[in-house]
Automatic annotation (TrEMBL):
The keyword Metal-binding applies. One of its GO terms (molecular function) is zinc ion binding. It comes from Drosophila guanche. This is Uncharacterized protein. The lineage of its organism: Eukaryota, Metazoa, Ecdysozoa, Arthropoda, Hexapoda. GO terms for cellular component: nucleus.
Length: 151
């Protein structure tokens, strides 16, 4: 109970802190013993240093599909009043489901831009989030494949 209260008490200050900041999201999913958890961190630049805050660690009670993950990510963005135009990039492992979730979120952004096409201001502010693969995870997979298959 105290954790939930702590989370709720910290949310307004984090919301204020992240207002008008350009943010890079970091996503990771862990599955153990038939339980799945997604972690979402926000990284931003402030006072000559890079800051990282955790926006959520959520247990996934549904299949880890791109559609379900995109709904969870959008829910977290809403909780902190973050707009899609604030998200510069999303870094994750090479999981197809996370990559697909970002594609879905970008498609939603494109659809909303099409609805307001006559407004130039809306068109200028809508941008796509770049989906980046974690270099360390990619290197780990390459080394694993090398050890498995050799040269």
């Amino acid at each position: 109970m105290w954790r939930k209260n702590l989370k709720l008490s910290m949310r307004p200050s984090l919301r204020t802190l992240l207002t008008h900041k350009l943010i890079s999201l970091k996503l990771d999913i862990a599955s153990r013993h038939s339980r799945g958890i997604v972690g979402v961190n926000a990284q931003y630049y402030e006072q000559n240093s890079i800051k990282v805050v955790t926006l959520g660690i959520i247990e996934l009670n549904k299949k880890h599909t791109g559609v379900n993950l995109s709904a969870e990510i959008e829910s977290i963005l809403e909780d902190f009043s973050l707009t899609k135009s604030q998200i510069y990039s999303v870094t994750s492992d090479n999981g197809r489901n996370i990559i697909k979730s970002i594609e879905i979120i970008n498609e939603d952004s494109d659809a909303s831009a099409d609805d307001d096409e006559e407004e130039l201001e809306t068109q200028v502010n809508v941008c796509s989030m770049a989906s980046l693969k974690c270099a360390a995870h990619t290197l780990q997979l390459a080394v694993k494949d090398f050890l498995k298959f050799g040269m």
